[in-house]
Fold this sequence. Notes:
Elements: H1 5-12, H2 14-27, H3 29-41, E1 46-50, H4 54-70, E2 74-76, H5 79-84, E3 96-102, H6 108-120, E4 125-130, H7 136-141, E5 147-151, H8 165-179, H9 184-195, H10 198-208, E6 212-217, H11 220-235, E7 241-246, E8 262-267, H12 272-289, E9 294-298, E10 307-310, H13 319-340
Parallel strand pairs: 1-2, 1-3, 3-4, 4-5, 6-7, 6-8, 8-9, 9-10
Keywords: Isomerase, Repeat
GO cellular component, one term: plasma membrane
Protein name: Tagatose-6-phosphate ketose/aldose isomerase
Amino acid sequence: MTDSDFTRAEIEQQPSVWQATRRLVTAARTRLDDVLGPALRDPATRVVLTGAGTSAYAGQVLAPELTRLLDRPVEAVPTTDIVTDPQTLTAGNRPVLLVSFARSGNSPESVAAAALLDRLHPAARHLLITCNADGDLVRRYAHAANAVVITLPPATNDRGFAMTSSFTSMILAAHLCLAGDVDVDALARAAAAVLADTTGIEKTVTASRPDRLVYLGSGSLTGLAREAALKCLELTAGDVAAWGESTLAFRHGPKAALTPGTLAAIFVSGDAYRRAYDLDLARELIGSLGADRVVLIGDSTHGLDTLHWHVPREPGLPDAVWAAAAIIPAQLAALACSLALGHTPDNPFPGGEVNRVVRGVVIHPFGERRD
């Protein structure tokens, strides 16, 4: 195999693993209802979505939509924040449902965040969504009375460096677990349409030869923009600087990142209100960068004369679910940038400067007095 075969295959397999993910969650429905049902029926329960890196961005994608569907605040708090300041998770002594996203289930912060919550709040409940049946989280919580473990299909445990199918499958699984069924068939059709234009997306990137990539979105698509930027940073080993930001926040400082060589991509919301802000910024960027350096990622150009990565959206598909298909152009763009620069996408850091599972983290005892 070449040094990009795993990454490319894991991008391309997403429509099929989503179908398998739905079947897994359906099979776990009784346990989900028994363990998590009481927490979800209690309006006082604090629902926290957590993970590190890409897994944290999965929570950021889902939080706005789950807030609407569950009719309560749903927070996305990275494990890296929980571990360094765990008492913020238990403030007010409210019931807590911690939803942990973890590809390997072996990251020190993932294990520590769950353990700290159990220590500080013994009545807490857990939903753990992981891609690795042999990970530490599975071993610790597979038989715990206060937890449900959803182990995704083995194919989602990406062997490439960057999380691709693991990210989208975790988003889908959490939505199915917490908010009920979605049209996975429609989502798979949208992804298949994107993958059919892989060459066109890659040609856009190689022709523009960007020195920087900027991804923008609003609501759930803000978290998606951050994940898209991370894919570029990871697969190019940082050679192509990338930023992900919300549509409105971009003007408040991050816009300084723009250069004449920037390629700016906007995830266009399916919600008319949010979309109005997305398109306002698109027009502004077309004026400053030129139409050939601005990409709309969505089901339409909305009358704008600019580049377009088409991602179909069937009526009623919310941004947080559509995001699983919408991230695929960004995954393909990152892969194209990586290959164009001579990197090996399956292992962009052969010297080990950045690792697939984070290393070097020391989990310090909490509660001990320190001078």
